[in-house]
Amino acid sequence: MEEMDTIIEPFRIKSVEPIRMTTREERERRLRDVDYNVFGLHARDVLIDLLTDSGTGAMSAGQWAGVMRGDESYAGSESYYRFEETVQDIFGFEHVIPTHQGRAAERILFSTVCDDGDVVPNNTHFDTTRANVEASGAEARDLPCPEADDLSDPAPFKGDIDLEGLERTIREVGADRIPMVMITVTNNSGGGQPVSMANLRRASELCGEHGIPLYLDACRFAENAWFIKQREEGWSDTPVDEIAREMFSHADGCTMSAKKDGLANIGGFLATDDDRLARQERELLILTEGFPTYGGMAGRDLEAIARGLREVLEPDYLQYRVTSTRYLGEHVSEAGVPIVEPPGGHAVYVDADTFCPNVPPRQFPGLSLVVALYRVAGIRAVEIGSVMFGGEDPETGEFRPARNELVRLAMPRRVYTQSHVDYVVEALLKIWDRRDELGGYRITDAPETLRHFTASFEPVGEA
Ligand code: F0G
Predict the structure, then answer these.
(1) Does residue 16 form part of some domain?
(2) Which residue, of 165, 181, 266, 388, is most buried by count of CB atoms within 10 Å of its CB?
C-alpha cells in the first residue's frame, strides 16, 4: 500500500464532553468580572482551554478499566506494585516513591538534600521547582544553552543545559555546595524544547567526575525521547522506550509529574537508586503524603499512571502528539506570527513582545494577547512573561521585565482534534491582522509571590 501523508489522531472517541459557545459580549463581561486575569474564569466559560497540558489529558478506555481495578488497600496495594514495576522498567530506578503530583516529589527531594547556601543548577527550573529549591534555602540557577537565547533559531536541541556554564558553576561554587544537578526534559520554561542524548551523557560524565548526582525533571520524558529519535544522529532506529531507558541511565534519580507524560489527571513520583536517601524520603512521605505504597494517590490513580506510562511511549501516539503541536506552530508562523522556533512538544510559545507592536514590556504584551484570544475566540492561554517573572527593583521601584514576553498555547493530550486546532489558528491570525489595535494593561492589585495566578489588571487608558 502507498504510504499515507496525513497524520491522524490515533484514537476514536468513545465518550464526549460538550464545550460551550459564548458570545463576545459574554466574554467581554467575564473578562471585566475577573479583572482581566484568565485564571479567574470558570472553565465552563472557556471554549478551548490551552492554559496547561498538566492533568488535562483524556484517559484511554484501558486506563478507565484500570480505574475499576484500583486496589485501595492502605498498605501493599496491588495497584502500587503494578505502578512500581512499570516505573522500574521504564525509568530504571530501584526506589519509586509515589506523590500526589510533581511538586510534592520536588519538595521531598529538595528538603532532604539541600542546605542553606547550596546551589542547584538546571537547564531551566520550572516555577514550582525553583520555588521548592528556594524554600529549602538553596539557590536555583538556570543554565540554558546559548542557542536558547535566539527565539527564532530553529536549532534541534535548544533545551540542552549549558555544559560550559555547568563546569564553571561547579568550579566556582564547589562540588560540596551542589547537592545535585537537574535537567528538565523537555525544557518547559524554555519553550518546550528537547535535550539531546549527547548533552545528557556529557552532563552525567561531568557530574560523575565531581561526585554530584544528576536528576531529571522527567515530566515530558516521552516527548523528549521522541525528539531524540527524530532529530539526533544515531537514534532513528532505536525504539522510543529504549531511548527513554537510555536517557534515565545517565541519571541518578528523577522527579515526575504524571499529569503530563503519565497521561493521568493527577499523580507523580520521586525515584532514586540511593537506599539511604530513599529511606529518608519515605519518612518525609509518610509525614505529609501517605504510606509508601500509595503516597498521595488513590489506588485507581496508580493504575491509571501504570497504564499511561506505557501508552505514552507508543510511536503512533507520539507521532500524533508532536505533529499536532507542530501543525499549530507551523500554521501560525507561516503567516508571520513570531513563535519560539521550533515548536515544542507540548506547546507553542508565541513571542508576544514582537506580536504586539504598541505594548511595551511594562504594559504586559503577553497579557494583552491572552486577553485578546479569550475575547475574540473563547480560547484560554497563559502568559509567561513579565506578569509571571517580572517585578520591581526593591530599592528604586523601577520595572524589571522578564527575559522574554511569551504566551504559551499548551496542548492537552488526546483532547482536541484538528478542527479545534484550525479554530485556534484562525483566531490567532485574526488577532495578528489587527495587532496594531492591541493595548496594554496595568496591575491594580497583586500578591507578593506567584502573582500571575491572582493579580488584577485594567486596560491602560481606563480610569
Ligand atoms: N516540572 C515541570 C517541568 C513542570 O512543567 C511542572 C508542572 C512541574 C514540574 C510540577 O508538576 O504540577 O504536577 O506539581 N507544570 C504545569 C504547567 C503546571 O502548566 O506547565 P505538578
Answers:
(1) no
(2) 181
Q: Is the pLDDT of residue 463 over 60?
A: no
Ligand 1 atom nearest 52 alpha carbon: 19
Grid coordinates representing 300 are 485507581
Closest of 369, 374, 366, 444 to residue 41, by C-alpha: 374
Is the same domain home to 249 and 376?
no
Whether residues 333 and 362 fall in one domain: yes
196 lines ligand 1 (CB under 6 A): no
Task: Give residue 94's pLDDT.
Answer: 98
99 lines ligand 1 (CB under 6 A): no
- Model confidence over 317-359: pLDDT tens digits? 999 999 999 999 999 999 999 999 999 999 999 999 999 999 9
Question: 342 alpha carbon to ligand 1 midpoint, in Å?
Answer: 21
Residue 70 in grid coordinates: 484500583
Nearest protein Cα to ligand 1, atom 19: 52
Please indicate, yes or no, whether residues 282 and 179 belong to a single structural domain of this protein: yes
Tell me which residue of 132, 96, 190 sits closest to 199, measured CA to CA.
Answer: 190
Residue 421 shares a structural domain with residue 444: yes
Contact 60, 317 (CB under 8 A): no
**Candidate of 120, 126, 270 to mutate for ligand 1, largest count of ligand atoms within 8 Å of Cβ:** 126
Let me know whether 361 and 412 are in one domain.
yes
Domain boundary among 253, 280, 311: 311
The reply to whether ligand 1 has any atom less than 6 angstroms from the CB of 63 is no
Q: Is the CB of 189 under 6 A from ligand 1?
A: no
Residue 197 belongs to domain spanning: 61-311
Amino acid at 436: D
Same domain, yes or no, for 263 and 295? yes
Counting from 1 in the atom list of ligand 1, the atom nearest the Cα of 346 is 20
Report the nearest atom of ligand 1 relative to the CA of 259: 13
Number of structural domains found in the chain: 2
Q: Which three cell numbers stand for residue 454?
A: 491572582
To which H or E segment does residue 353 belong?
helix 352-355
Residue of 129, 140, 250 lying closest to 196 (CA atoms): 250
Using one digit for the tens of pLDDT, what is the confidence trace for 25-50?
999 999 999 999 999 999 999 999 99
CB 462 within 8 Å of CB 449:
no
| Pair 304, 321 in one domain | no
Locate 242 and state its grid cell.
529504549
For residue 277, give the H/E element and its range: helix 275-288
Q: pTM for this structure? A: 0.96
Contact 120, 180 (CB under 8 A): yes
